[in-house]
Design goal:
By secondary structure, the chain is mainly alpha-helical.
């Protein structure tokens, strides 16, 4: 049953991240910095990736210690995503593309390494307390939430939407 769960979760991370990526690649420059709810388009993509990355880890300290984060320390700066204030930083499409690749790889590696015991550990991020197995589902739902917002923004601005990506399909 454990292998079955891990396979499903990996496929769903991949499908959700593919849908998020479908929002990034075709996004016109004129939309990249436009408002999507309370963030700009690029900040909303970063937000989705940042929290996916965070929830795939053990805690906030582990997030900061990752090689990807150290290599891009100036971009992550003060980790404003974790501050009780509005985001102000802007992110290039090139950086977002790199971060997307990092998060996709991390999702595959982390989920593949899960055990029955690790999936039952209570994760405590102050704002969400849930067992790790459920946190993966929560994380995927969070990605989809933002992919839907971004997809709607693209449709409203350019007339083009994003396609549905089913389980295990990698189209982008």
């Amino acid at each position: 049953m454990l292998d079955y769960y891990k396979d499903i979760i990996i496929r769903q991370y991949e499908a959700a991240l593919c849908m998020l990526n479908q929002c990034v690649e075709p996004c016109p420059d004129k939309v990249w910095n436009k408002s999507v709810v309370n963030l700009t388009f690029n900040q909303a993509v970063f937000h989705a990736l940042f929290f996916t990355d965070l929830y795939l880890g053990a805690d906030i300290a582990c997030q900061r210690e990752q090689p990807f984060h150290k290599e891009h320390a100036a971009t992550f700066a003060d980790y404003e995503e974790l501050q009780p204030r509005q985001q102000v930083r802007s992110y290039s499409k090139a950086f977002i593309t790199q971060y997307m690749a990092h998060v996709r790889s991390k999702a595959r590696t982390v989920v593949a390494g899960e055990t029955e015991e690790s999936l039952q550990v209570l994760m405590d991020f102050n704002w969400v307390k849930v067992e790790r197995g459920e946190l993966h589902v929560y994380n995927i739902r969070h990605i989809q939430h933002h992919a839907a917002q971004l997809g709607l923004k693209l449709r409203m601005e350019s007339g083009e939407g994003i396609g549905w990506v089913g389980s295990g399909w990698r189209t982008t």
